[in-house]
Amino acid sequence: MCRLFGMTAGAKPVGATFWLLDAPDSLEAQSHRNVDGSGIGFFDPEGHPVLDKQPEPAFADEEFIREAKHAVSTTFVAHVRWATSGARTVANTHPFTMNGRIMAHNGGFGDLARLDYQLGTYRKLVRGDTDSERYFALMVQQTDAHGGDIGAGITAAARWIGEHLPVSSLNAIVTAPGELWALRYPGQHALHILERPAGNSVPAAQDTRAGTPAGQPAPARPGLHLRSSTSSIHAPALRSVPTVVVASEELDGERDWRMLEPGELIHVRRDLKVESAVVITEPPARLVPLPAGNPNVDT
């Protein structure tokens, strides 16, 4: 199945190169197992969503590599795709953006015609063919129905799908500038969180490309500097800025990763306080078991 990555530094623009390219189990490394597309989503200095995605594996996508090296933002979402719904096209490649937010999904569900009916006029937000983008449109619909509360919208969308449609997994990451929400539901796919305070050195196992001796912390990474015709932003190195990371897999050798509980929704606020609650306790009405022998099944 697909793999998710999300990171926020609150109000501080940073780069995500380490997690996307350099970590032992980076998104680039995962793309060798998830070859149907890759994408990075982040926010520009004015808070507008920026997507860079192609229906190619990240390891072969020069655009992905370039953005991973040079993009800076308060918040990132990245995704490597194992296609189960929709052809390999740009429109079907994650992440997606709607109403100034960015979303990516890991999992799948069926009976899309019934969901299209439920979406009503919100169906026009969907540009591709995937279940994932429809899931996002349902989140938008339910967020509007709950007075703009994004967490309530995510919960209501996942609960509706779980009650009415056959489901394998609804794991998702949604971001707004400086904020991040993540849901794990039900429990067939993993989703982890890592809270990294400022000053953490990168474990030696993470910096094998630089030849760091075993057992010694790697040197601090330099900040990234992105220039364009309209902006010039200095992004501090991850080591100097507190961050919160959410990912389908534990990307490095740190021991502080925590698996989200089934039905758990987290909200990382702009001040990096993590709010967490199990918001859906009942299993899906029609759970679709994962196929035995699938190399992407989480264990």
Query: What is the level-2 CATH architecture name of one domain?
Result: 4-Layer Sandwich
| Fourth CATH level, the homologous superfamily of one domain | Aminohydrolase, N-terminal nucleophile (Ntn) domain
What is the number of E strands? 18
| CATH secondary-structure class of one domain | Alpha Beta
Indicate the proportion of strand residues.
Answer: 25-35%
Which short descriptors sum up this protein?
single chain, 299 residues, Glutamine Phosphoribosylpyrophosphate, subunit 1, domain 1, 7-stranded antiparallel sheet, 7-stranded mixed sheet, 6 helices, 18 strands, 19% helix, globular
Please outline the helices and strands.
Elements: E1 3-8, E2 14-15, H1 17-22, H2 27-30, E3 38-43, E4 49-54, H3 62-70, E5 72-73, E6 75-80, E7 96-98, E8 101-109, H4 112-119, H5 131-145, H6 150-164, E9 166-176, E10 179-184, E11 192-196, E12 224-227, E13 232-235, E14 243-247, E15 258-259, E16 264-268, E17 274-278, E18 286-287
Parallel strand pairs: 9-18
Antiparallel strand pairs: 1-6, 1-14, 2-5, 3-4, 3-6, 7-8, 8-9, 9-10, 10-16, 11-14, 11-15, 12-13, 16-17
